[in-house]
Amino acid sequence: MGQNSKEVWTLAEFRGGMINPVSYELLAWGRTLADDLEAELASVILGDEITSVETLFHEGADIVYIVDHKGLANFLPDVHSNVLTSLAKEHKPEIILASATTYGRTVMPMLSTKLETGLTADCTKLEIDPESKLLLQTRPAVGGNVMATIKTQTKPQMATVRPRSKKPLKPDQTRSGRILYKEFSPQFFESKYTWIGFEKDESSDSPIQEADIVIAGGRGMKDENNFDLLYKIAKKLNGVVGASRTAVDMGWIPYSHQVGLSGKTVSPHLYMAFGISGAVQHIAGMSSSDIVVAVNTDPDAAIFDVADFGIVGDALEILPIFLKKLGEKDG
Ligand SMILES: Cc1cc2nc3c(=O)[nH]c(=O)nc-3n(C[C@H](O)[C@H](O)[C@H](O)COP(=O)(O)OP(=O)(O)OC[C@H]3O[C@@H](n4cnc5c(N)ncnc54)[C@H](O)[C@@H]3O)c2cc1C
Fold first, then answer.
1. How confident is the model at residue 201 (pLDDT cuts 50, 70, 90)?
2. Which listed residue, 132, 276, 302, 318, has the most CB atoms within 10 A of its CB?
């Protein structure tokens, strides 16, 4: 495609000499949107001594814009937003996406203000409206009670996306694209802030977000003790235990295991839901799982709408059989 074609942008995050994997999830969102708009997908990366950008092409980008400067070694929001504003004014992308990480949540509001355009934060789904060709941005609203779909009438249309709301594309090592190095004058790198240091918030990390197998229970598990069955199965399968908010509210399992809108977003290969009804707030946290298995006594439970395999039955009868099949004779 030519230089004047439309562009969809995703902001890559570069820290500690590495591209944050959330950047690849964003490219997966961006790829679909760019294809629907017949646009090119660009990844914009700011940092110092940037390396390994070819992975951005393998994961879906057509163009990589690089701003590589010592002044970008640490995340100073005013510097990053000034550089991004200038780039966006020059190239006029249709859409700019960032991950709803500390980086995205900080830089995107500053950027949208400078570009005088709207920003939809913490989206769980993005699509192109086939008629208006505008970005349909879905996110929880009214305290999480409904999912609202928002259109921004001004350009660029800007959104932050919940990490793990989509899986990265399968890397294609044969893909390549254009790398464009952008230069900026020294005053762009002057900041009002002084960098002191970086401290990771360990409490925000939960093993359930990294797990390949999540065995989750809800109110249908009836009792804290019955969660032992889930722990045993998780152990056998090398997975972790997840839970609905109700199970957490009942005190059956700590909050760090909660999956959903007000809990963690997970994206495992296998998600098994035992006695979980499938409320929209729960689905929002697990819908990008590869395979969903649901066990519920109610054949009309909403969880079956997102399940690849459904069993209508009593979880408390099925779990011991399952455990036995996995080789634990004592259940
Ligand atoms: C702002 C907001 C944020 C929220 N955030 C979250 C969130 O992050 N995560 C979350 O999960 N929820 C969240 N919720 C709550 C959500 O709306 C639901 O209330 C909750 O997910 C229901 O949990 P549950 O499925 O365990 O319970 P229920 O909805 O009570 O469902 C229990 C299910 O178990 C089935 N069942 C009963 N007995 C058995 C049995 N013996 N065997 C098999 N099945 C059985 C029933 O048929 C039923 O479908 C949020 C709500 C709001 C308003």
1. low
2. 276
